[in-house]
Amino acid sequence: MCDLQCVYHDRAQLGEGVFWSQNEQKVFWIDIEGQRVCRFDPESGENESVFVGQQVGTVVENAAGGLVVGLKDGVYALEFETGALHKWCDPMNGCRDNRLNDGKAGPDGRFYVGSMGPEGKQSLFCIDNDTTSIRTLEDQVTCSNGLAWSLDQGTLYYIDSPQRLVWAYDFDREAGTISNRRVVVDVRGEDCVPDGMTIDSEGKLWVAFWEGWGVRRYDPDTGTLLQEIKLPVARVTSCAFGGKDLDTLYITTASIGFEDADWKREPQAGGLFSVEPGVKGVPSFLFKALG
């Protein structure tokens, strides 16, 4: 296992949404409050960003080229090189109090994304491959967050952060539906909050913990904590495996609301970190539009 590194010290306000592009061999991630989609090259150490003009909750790769982003007012196609945006749909029907949060492309090529806002009555949505059809998979969510699919693609793991639970659902790949919700990881009673999530090649879950100073590896079959990697920052937000061999875990962090005393305590907050945890990940799924 290699030492933890801050590979890009960005001071992002709310780093999130990290994934590895197999096509580009680069790390994509976002700064929600900075309204940026970023692309980090681990070979050169260069980080590029495009400003999208509103809060951005997630980014995934489009099989047809470009990216798909969940912004405050809906789902868009994004051309990273030019910054051009094309709106597809708005799952929240114009509600200005809410915004889209964490999301991922599924093994079926659909886009799964949730919402968050002050009301606490949020949802998990599925955007179908025609880019405009929207289905609500779960409602009465508090703050929709991390998603991951089991290796056999028959289970969706999902986090509603304030509940401090990781749920599992039976996942129907053909229909893009979920059922039979149950708890697989329970951290109620702890001060930290589960945030973003990924899965490794052994079927174990990696969960980033807000105010938890790190990421943790869990066995979803038993709920057992298997491993913990500590970071020098408290607000750890998301994680994803990348690198040529998918053996590097990239981790995003946040510095939102920081004052001088906070920066003295956590000078690397908002940075993009990496570590080789001793296990490999699996490739990210792509959104696959019809036609």
UniProtKB/TrEMBL annotation:
- Which Gene3D superfamilies is this protein grouped with? TolB, C-terminal domain (2.120.10.30)
Specify which residues bind substrate according to the UniProt entry for this protein.
R99, N101, E119
Which Pfam families would you find in this protein's record?
Answer: SGL
Residues at the active site: D195 (proton donor/acceptor)
Might you give the EC number(s) for this enzyme? 3.1.1.17
Record GO biological process: L-ascorbic acid biosynthetic process
Judging by the UniProt lineage, the source's domain of life is Bacteria
As cofactor, the record names: Mn(2+); Zn(2+); Ca(2+); Mg(2+)
Instruction: Give the main EC class.
Output: hydrolase
- Cofactor mode of binding and number, as noted: Binds 1 divalent metal cation per subunit.
GO molecular function ontology, one term from the record: enzyme regulator activity
| A GO CC term attached to the entry | cytoplasm
Q: Report the catalytic activity.
A: D-glucono-1,5-lactone + H2O = D-gluconate + H(+)
Where it sits in the cell: the answer is: Cytoplasm
Q: Which residues bind a divalent metal cation?
A: E16, N145, D195
Q: SMP-30/Gluconolactonase/LRE-like region domain: which residues?
A: 14-254
Coiled-coil spans in chain: none
Q: Which UniProt keywords apply?
A: Calcium, Cytoplasm, Hydrolase, Metal-binding, Zinc
- Name the PANTHER family for this protein: REGUCALCIN
Question: Which family does the similarity line name?
Answer: Belongs to the SMP-30/CGR1 family.
Which protein, by its recorded name, is this? Answer: Regucalcin
What is the originating organism of this protein?
Pelagicoccus enzymogenes
Lineage, top ranks: Bacteria, Pseudomonadati, Verrucomicrobiota, Opitutia, Puniceicoccales
